[in-house]
Amino acid sequence: MPALPALKAASYTLHLASLPHARLLEQVALATVTPKMLSWQQAEIATAFFGDERTTFSEQPTTQSQRLLALLDALLAKMPARPAQQIVYLLLPEFNSADDALLSTFLHQLMRNHPELLQSPQCRVFPYGATASVMALKAAAELLAQPEQQKEIWFIAVDSLNDEAVFSRYAAEQSATEQSCQLLSEGAIALYLTASDTGLQLAYAASDAQLEPSTDDDMATAGLLRQTAQLLSIEQAQLSLICLPDSGNDYASQCWLNQMSQLNGVVTEDTQYLLPGYQIGELGACGGLYRLLLLLHQAQQGRVSGLILQYEQSLRRYRGVALYQAV
């Protein structure tokens, strides 16, 4: 297989409910989120949704498909240029086999409303929540490395945590830990990636599924981090930066926090940690792409160097890692 090219962010567009006026990453870094509190099953949940003034959930919300399409509509309206006969990788909320009908309905509506997004035969859909970002990046890097292949690709992510099932799950987790400061939100992001001589070069990427929910013994996360550490140990290399999906949910954080010992030997006192989810809230698939965009942006600005690890986990099953070399 040909050597994978470095990738850079040629352009991007943000549409984040937690920071609706932020158009640049620098604005996100300086902004402050003012959440609204939602009462749900004896829990108080911090939220930031577009056009939502409720403090209770007494009214039936729009369907998930409708919310996702509305978010995409707003994102596309902000974009100075849209995909036209170009490759698009669509990063979506986590769907499993039981949700096949929901995913099919959404894609049918999407093709009817925005057929231009999936016109190329090389377009792909990644319905894996936050983990979709590392899955899609691996596929994109391999595709762009092929001879005579066009050297650009669109990533478009959309997700919304404005869902009854999410509220119930979060309320239960909040009750179990008795401590949480997570912000549930929604949004959409478009990222235009191009092959380049500088940026981030993908050294390794892998994903897995945790079949049984467990924070104490997340075997998928353990295996992914262990494999990463073994690869680095062979090269006698160490991590300069680790980017993690933590956004204040102590229950979810335990999935990776309990497995960080797998990285012993490749983490030093100089290793830095990046947790941008505290700034934007939990955004599902959109959050994973936001973290990738932030790493690309920092690499292009020369603010990160060495080997960088991005770990992602979806709300339920999927886990993923991507190891980058800043070049």
TrEMBL record:
Name this polypeptide is given: Beta-ketoacyl synthase N-terminal domain-containing protein
